[in-house]
Task: structure prediction
Amino acid sequence: MRKDEQLRFNITMSLDGYVAGPNQSVKHPLGEGGDRLHDWAFKLKSFREMHGDGSGGETGTNDDIVRETFANLGATIMGRNMFGGGPGPWGKDPWKGWWGDNPPFHAPVFVLTHHAREPLAMQGGTTFTFVTDGIESALKQAKKAAGGKDVMLGGGAKVAQQYLAAGLIDEMEIHVVPLLLGGGARLFDDLGRLGVRLEPIRTVEGPGVTHLKYRIVKEADLALASGAV
Amino acid sequence: MRKDEQLRFNITMSLDGYVAGPNQSVKHPLGEGGDRLHDWAFKLKSFREMHGDGSGGETGTNDDIVRETFANLGATIMGRNMFGGGPGPWGKDPWKGWWGDNPPFHAPVFVLTHHAREPLAMQGGTTFTFVTDGIESALKQAKKAAGGKDVMLGGGAKVAQQYLAAGLIDEMEIHVVPLLLGGGARLFDDLGRLGVRLEPIRTVEGPGVTHLKYRIVKEADLALASGAV
Result:
């Protein structure tokens, strides 16, 4: 049964398990070859609209999936690496994200970081709030800001692993692209034994990408359902 | 265009990229928790038939996929680890595989190993031939034995990585199961930059498993097709 205010995780992964190529840098934020992961998304009508370009773009299966992903969404959580600007303190002329003056989120975004910073209001309704007291605090703040809508976990890999390990993700959609990057940032790494079970929701094949969607069932819920507690 | 005598690779993988769980041993040949990877296959009618049990079993999507996989198949290649019996010399009472007197292959099987050994004929048409001079030799022998039919690459991960890196695989079908094993033998590891491109053939969702099938296009073929050579 679907609860209110789900935490949904949504990410594009190569068939060999990478969400970014090797050697990530300011010049190559997605690593070498990592841009190709998102070829399927860049050309979609929904993607263009979110980025302020309402002219043209592909409709169809992939576009429908992306629209569904961003429907009923009230806030986003991401890691410092996804927000960008390199590691360490923010400095005098702090980085404002990869997305220009009008980022595509149009809602509150919570950035996990070790370095405190004042909230940053951008055009179009996006506000970046910097959270230094951990993933559970970020989730609590994001759910409150989302006002009953869902929260999106955007990535990157390390943050997703923390939320997965903590059993905090409700739904996960992985867009698998037919690429072998051969190296980079793995989505699933160092997870160890998890107290979660995946239930497939649906598989959709679009041009150049396969969308795998799962509900994540926590072991506590399983025990409850079976009457074991 | 489909060539004769394809090398087809067929393997079951967890969503987090593992084809066996951690701590593989004679007691746990698929590693801890790795048995669960194959729950979808064990109960199929086609699987039971191949293992000499014609009574019952599931039909439907997954059964159709397995039947298609084993159709037009003339020989199999596998690594020493998949054949089993531990590493090192074969010893006085050599291991005869995991599958009993009547293995489910019913055709020539070529086992890659560093340790020479006489061929081993089993019941039901399975013959294990032990190949010590590398993956290309095994493929050449297997294609000859297959008599115009396809050759199956069964695994494990290390052998598959060698064939992938050498650009020798024509088709690859990955059965993705909704499990996070959290550790074990990764299918895709240490691949580095590959001179291959994947073209999706089809995606099929069955109960408890999603079947992703790709054609592997070698860069040499790509250059030829574009007139670059």
Remarks:
- DSSP finds seven helices and eleven strands in chain A.
- Residues 135-146 of chain A form the longest helix (12 residues).
- The first strand of chain A starts at residue 7 and ends at 14.
